[in-house]
Write a structure and sequence with these properties.
- The chain is α/β, with parallel strands linked by helices and 165 residues long.
- The protein has a single domain, classed as Collagenase (Catalytic Domain).
- 43% of the residues lie in helices and 18% in strands.
- The chain has a four-stranded mixed beta sheet with strand order 1-2-4-3, sandwiched between helices.
- Helix 1 links the parallel strand 1 and strand 2.
- Helix 3 packs across helix 4 and helix 4 crosses helix 5.
- The protein is globular and about 40 Å long.
Length: 165
């Protein structure tokens, strides 16, 4: 009987940039930011996660279709691995399939302008926010919101100078 082959990945971060303004950060910027965020949260390889930078209409449509919320949003997260309390069987390949985050680039640009900070700072915040959702952070209840916003603030400060100025 042949020995079962196991392939172990390290940190697989897939980036897809679906906007073409010319102002978007490079794929590697998002890859490194995702890896650093997950490492700061204690996520150890092997794992895989996707980051998609898209247009406002696409993210709005996703928000309407998947969340039944008919308005634009800045970032939306999709679990591949459901939260721990959800009974869902996944292949035993040893890889944490965290999920996907989709960021609206136009919404990030607008929010950066409104907050008087750089687009990279806003994209850093939205990437952190989306990844924290994949790690079961939430902001539906006041206590959860405080926990999530506090963690975002710590990570945003930690990444100042590395991912934005």
């Amino acid at each position: 009987m042949p020995k079962e082959a196991r392939v172990y990945m390290k940190e697989e971060v897939y980036v897809q940039i679906d906007t073409e303004t010319g102002d978007e950060p490079q794929d590697t910027w998002f890859e490194n930011l995702a890896r650093d965020t997950l490492a700061a949260e204690g996520v150890v390889p092997p794992y895989e996660v996707s980051v998609v930078l898209s247009d406002e209409a696409t993210v709005h449509q996703m928000n309407r279709h998947y969340r039944n919320v008919d308005h634009p949003t800045d970032v939306i997260s999709f679990y591949t691995q459901m939260p721990a309390e959800t009974p869902f069987v996944l292949p035993e390949d040893g890889v944490q399939h965290l999920g996907d985050i989709v960021i609206s680039f136009p919404q990030a640009v607008e929010q950066a302008r409104e907050q008087s900070h750089s687009v990279k700072k806003e994209l850093t915040l939205l990437t952190i926010h989306g990844l924290l959702h994949l790690l079961e952070y939430d902001h539906e209840e006041p206590d959860d919101a405080v926990r999530m916003r506090s963690r975002e603030a710590v990570l945003l400060e930690q990444f100042n100078g590395r991912y934005y100025d």
